[in-house]
Amino acid sequence: MMDTAPLRDAYRALLDAAATVADSGTSPVPPAGEWNADQILAHVTLINAATLAAVTSIASGTNTTYDNRTALDAWTIERVITLTGGNAGLRDRIRTQADALCALGGPTLSDAELDTLVPTRLFSNGRVLADQCISLRDLITGLAEAELPGHTEQLLALLPEGAEAVA
Q1: What's 5-166's CATH class?
Q2: Integer Cα distance of 126 and 128 in angstroms
C-alpha cells in the first residue's frame, strides 16, 4: 500500500496556485515559449489521464506503457481546453482525477502492483528524461515530487511581480 498524502498535498498546492492565478484579475502572459495557465492545466489533465490509464491497466492485470508525448502536443492541449470549457473546467477535472489517483494509487493496489515495471518514455522541453522501465509506484511518486510541484511553480510564475509572495 502507498501513502498518497504527498500526492494529495501536491494536487492541493497546484489547484490553489491555479485558483490564485485565475482570481488575480490579470491575464498573465507567459514568457515566450512557455505555456499559459490553461495550457499548463490541460497538460496536467493529460498526464493524469495517462497515469490513470497505467494504474487501471495494472489493476486489471494487463500490460501497459507510459508515454507523456501526447501531453506535450499543442493541438491536444488546445482540444482539452476547449472540451473542458477552460480554466474552471480544467481545475474541476484535475480535482476529480486527483481523487481517483489517490484512491486507486493508494489503498486499492497491492505492493506487487505498485512495483510493476512500466516501459516509460518521458520528455520535457524536447529532451528525453526517461526511456526505461519505471515502477508504477515511482510514476505516481514522480507526480507528487516533481511533476505537480514544477507546474505549481510554473503557474505562480505567471502572477505579476509581488503577487506570488501573497499566494
Answers
A1: mainly alpha
A2: 7
How many Cβ atoms sit within 10 Å of the Cβ of residue 96? 12
- What percent of the chain is modeled with pLDDT above 70? 96
Find the mean pLDDT for residues 28-32.
79
Mapping DSSP onto H, E and C, the string for the chain reads: CCCCHHHHHHHHHHHHHHHHHHCCCCCCCCCCCCCCHHHHHHHHHHHHHHHHHHHHHHHCCCCCCEECHHHHCHHHHHHHHHHHCCHHHHHHHHHHHHHHHHHHHHHHCCHHHHCCEEEEEEEECCEEEEEEEEEHHHHHHHHHHHHHHHHHHHHHCCCCCCHHHHC
Nearby residues of 23 by Cβ (< 8 Å), 6 or more positions away: none
pTM exceeds 0.85 for this model:
yes
First to last CA, the chain: 34
**CA angle, 33 then 28 then 75, to 5°:** 45
- Return d(Cα 140, Cα 8) in angstroms, integer: 11
Half-sphere exposure of 40 (CA within 13 A, CB side): 28
In the sheet with 127-135, reading across from the earlier edge strand, the strands are 66-67, 117-124, 127-135
